[in-house]
Each structure stands twice: as structure tokens, then as C-alpha cells.
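[RESIDUES AND BACKBONE]
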Amino acid sequence: MKTGRPRIGYVPYSDTLEKPGDRRRFVAYAKARNIEFELAKPDERYDIVVLSEAADISVWCEYPHGKIVYDFIDSYLAIPRTNIKQWLRGIVWYVTGRHRRLRFDYWAILQDMCRRADAVVCTTEEQKSDIQQYCQNVHIVHDVHSSVVREIKNDYRCGDPFNLVWEGLPSNISQLIHVKNALKKINKHRPLILNIVTDPYHFRLLGRFGRVHSIDLARQAFDSVKFHLWDELNCSDIIRNCDLAIIPIDLSNPFVSGKPKNKLLLFWRMGVPVVTSGTPAYLRAMQEAGLKGLTCKSEEEWLIAIERMIDDETLRHDVGRAGKEYADFFYSKKVLLERWDAIFTSIGFSFNKYL
């Protein structure tokens, strides 16, 4: 077991380390464990390289030095071979400069990266099963939310209108279309406001072209929308002052339905009750937390679940508190840091002496 200070390189989502995928994952761990690292370059020699999903895996899959930890958080391996977008991904990322080397088969690049990695970090049981075909050392680790969760919900009374809240990346606002009809029906007899906590816009194509404003996209799903600019300082204050969080997901899409329970855990850490789509990760979390009837697979189920929560203050309180207890016990910062410890221990490194 190596205990001296290794040279560690990290390939981030952003060089400023301000993206959520940086702050909530390896960077949060490194700060907590007093681990020094630098932004990694493929032509440098490191003892350990930690790759985010923004890394150029066409290059790093052939890295000849040191150990690699691949933080592979999304379900790309679950996308069917018939998916045209996935086939084009390798070509498009090469043309736009995200990948240095041209690889036509994106699945093959992912598989090669997993084979090269000494440890792969993922976020769901389904993902772990897919990855284990190429790497046996796979660890499930969820996001650290301590920098975001600043306020906890204590008042479960609701007013009129009833305040729903959705939080996330603007590129995911389109998922709200899956509750459009349910919200429209409820709004006829109980006025609703849909609070959106996100960035003001995103680019539809390649992250550069086709600017789409978040509020316009949200209003395609519901008319009464209130936009809130996502900010780490006031995010939890906005969310906890709403009555109910919703997380609709397209269950027919294996990529988005394979997403982890990070967003659900974020709401639960704040004590906020949540209704979700019935993805595998959300179904497991609700079952483990002892909650029923809050994961939906149809418009009718969404309608029933939201109306139950609107009508019952005690239920909102009990659901919010049960979710918080679950998140605090099974996914505390201490637990998540220990899971990162186990990853590095598995490849022969220990950072205990720096604590």
C-alpha cells in the first residue's frame, strides 16, 4: 500500500472546477481528504489519473502510465446499438475537438476505457453490471451535496397556489413534458406554480449552437412557471420553500431512465417530499426509504400521487422526513468519502496519513 504523496492528475468538466460534476464528486473528496492534484495532461506521467466524463477517452484509454480511476456516471453503455445519435457521437466529438482521435464506434471507446481503467466509479446497479463486463473493480458512489444543502424544510403547510419545484440542468427541462397532462388536469381545480431552478439557457447543438431559454422550454410543459437562477448560495432556500419536488423522466429512453438517484437525494437532504418517475434507481430508493405510491409510470399515477401530496400536509411531512433520514443515514458525506477511500485503496493507495 503506497502512502507517500503520489502525483495525481484530474481531468475535470471545467478548468475552474466549478461544474457540479467536479464539486460534488472527486474534487469534494480531494478537498475533504487534503489531497493535492493537478489538471491532467495525457503526455505527463502521473501515479494516479482521475477522469471525469468530460475526459478525452479516445486518448486516455491508451495512457501508458500509472493507475486510472474513471468516473463514469452516465448510462452510455445501456444505449441500444440502433441509436443513431450514439453512432455519431464519436465522429461529432472528433470534428468539434472534444476527441483527439477519430473512433467511429463510440461503444468500443467506452469499453476500451473501462478495460484500461484500474477502477471505474458509477452511480447505479444497472451501470455496474454493464461495466463489469470490461472492468471488475467497479464502485457505486453518489454525489456529495454538502455545499448545496444549506437550509432544511421544517414547515409543510401549503398555500394557494400549490408550489411544485424542479431542479436540474436546462438540457433536462424537456423531461417535464411527461407530466404536462397531469399538471394541466390538477390546475383546473387546484392552481399550481411550477418553480424551475436552473441556468437561464443552454445550447441545443454541440454545446455551442441553437440557444434555448429555460423558461420558454418549461412553458411547453406548463403555463404557470416561475424561473429561479440556479445559485449555490440560495438554491436550497428556494427549494425548501416549495411544497413538493417532481422528477419526471422518459422511461422509454434507456439513457435518461438509467440516471442515478442523485437528484432525489438532493431534495431529500433538504427534507423536501418528492414524486418521481419509476426508474430503477428511484424505485429502489423509495422502497428502501419505506415510501409507497410516489414513483409513477403513467399519467394517471402522476395525477394520483401529486393530488395525494397536495391534499395531505401530514403525508408531505412524513415523506420529507423519511427521505431525509434515509439520505442522512445511507448517503452522508462521511459514507460517501469512505466509498472514495475504498476506490483508492483498491488500486493500492491510501490517503489516511493526510487527514
About this structure: The CA atoms of residues 150 and 236 lie 6 Å apart.
